Amino acid sequence: MAWVPYFLLVLSGCGSCSRGQGQPPPREDKTEAGTVDHTTSLASSFPGSQWSLILGEEDSTNRYAATVMVIVHDAKDASKHMECSGVLVAPRLVLTAGHCVCQRREAPAPDDEKLLIDASLCAATASVVLVTSEPPTPERVGESWSERLSGTVRPHPQLRLLLDSEGHVTSNTANLALVLLEQPVKQHIAPVLLSDEEATVGERLTVVGFGYAEGPGALDGRRRFSLESVTGRLEPRGERMLFGRPELHSYRGDTGGPCLREGKGAPTLVGISNRGLGREPAFTSTYAYRAWLEREIQFAPQSSSSSEEGPTP
After folding, report:
1. How far apart are CA 92 and CA 100, in angstroms?
2. Residue 3 counted as domain residue
3. 3-state class of 268 per DSSP?
4. Strand partners, 153
5. pLDDT at residue 46 above 50?
6. Domain that holds residue 178
7. Which residue in 136, 169, 303 sits closest to 239, CA to CA?
8. Whole-angstrom Cα distance, residue 260 to residue 79?
9. How far is CA 80 from the centre of its chain?
10. In a domain, 13, yes or no
11. Which of 34, 124, 126, 218 lies at 20 to 30 Å from 93 by C-alpha?
């Protein structure tokens, strides 16, 4: 994901879009949890069938309410920001992709690759937006109620990605990061549980997120999900797995969002989408880093008055 002009903080799914003409500005209410925005969704200019094909189905029942927006501001230019998805894994922990919160830099010699992303150049803080949708009725249009919180960025200590001059990911290690929220989520949203089994080729997963498509170039600010098949593993034992349909790779909306295994109970987390990075739609297996995640969740403070110290690396 690239740094983009910052026009809409909450419910802005596109990389560089502004509120359409005639749309009312959001109303903001101050609460203990932060700013709550009551925003009418932006109208889509695309037919419903085409919109759903590109972007997925809207999560109108809030089944995937633990999927959130993660917003990082450019330290040098406050008008720019980077926007990804993420998922709540504990009352004060949001998991996202490492490349969503850490910047690219030139790879040092003797690497043949041109760009490096690691834990040495990451944002210190990030904003997290939780959204609960209300479906439309004959009397009113649908709305989304949101809660915005701030937190401290904690990239995986082994995060290391290499990209070549054409944008291909040539090496991928621990493309994960956590955001430790300043206070627990106030909304009644249950964190997603970690799966105790690896994703397998041929399995169908639910991928959830907010974002934009390069073709239409906009999104109506809703959380969306799609069913995607795992199509392969990039290395025989690698943590990066391919999924989805390459012809629809123009959709960048679920980068950093969860890849979920559906079952009889609540969905469980098997990966974090990297669809917005590189030339192939892929996700990072969370099963490969289950021990790290379990330690972080176990030692994460449960309240804002708790100690901010995390587990021993």
Report:
1. 19
2. no
3. strand
4. 179
5. no
6. 26-40+48-299
7. 169
8. 33
9. 18
10. no
11. 218
β-pairing verdict for 143-155 and 177-181: antiparallel
Give the C-alpha separation, 128 to 66, whole Å.
11
Interior angle at CA 226, CA 68 and CA 162, nearest 5: 70
Classify residue 19: in a domain, yes or no: no
The phi and psi torsions of 294 (rounded to 5 degrees) equal -65, -40
The arrangement of strands across the sheet holding 160-163 comes to 105-106, 115-118, 160-163, 169-173
- Domain with residue 95: its CATH number is 2.40.10.120
pLDDT at 261: 97
| pLDDT score, position 213 | 56
Closest CA to 257 of 128, 96, 146: 96
Position 289 pLDDT exceeds 80: yes
Q: Of all helices (H) and strands (E), which one includes residue 50?
A: helix 48-55
- Tokens standing for 288? 């490969």
Position with higher pLDDT, 125 vs 42: 125
Mean pLDDT value of segment 165-190:
89
Most confident listed range (42-51, 206-215, 217-226, 290-299): 290-299
Q: Is residue 304 part of a domain?
A: no
Question: What would the two tokens of residue 144 be?
Answer: 């989304």
pLDDT band at 305 (very low <50, low <70, confident <90, very high): low
Label residue 134 by pLDDT band (50, 70, 90): confident
CB burial readout 234-273, b (16+ within 10 A) else e: eeeeebbbbbbeeebbebbbbbbbbbbbeeeeebbbbbbb
- Whether the per-residue pLDDT at 60 is higher than 60: the answer is yes
Tokens of 65: 């309410």
